[in-house]
Design brief:
mainly beta, 8 strands, single chain, 112 residues, eight-stranded antiparallel beta barrel
Length: 112
Amino acid sequence: MNKAIAGLWGGADIALEVTPDGISLNFDCAHGHIDEPIAPNSEGNFSVKGTYMSEHGGPVRSEENSDARPAIYKGKITGDKMTLTVTFPDGTVDVGPFNLERGKEGRIHKCM
């Protein structure tokens, strides 16, 4: 993974953690994963593929299907700040933008 973005990043309604296994994201009512390193260009912009899974309140039933779907995580890193938007190849509504800061805990309020 890219050391330039290593560690924890957080903000309102989002938490991102870079680990040796990839990049995990938690949102208020969803979570996601990015398998490839985020490698910003010279202007700090990036676009990487991953997955996004919606969540819901209450228990998860054993017969429920996974709602994981392909997603593109786009954003910009400037110093210790990142903006991030989740887009979907199927053209459904984007999620975000989110504002994150390096070393900050995310402020997540999971679905009830």
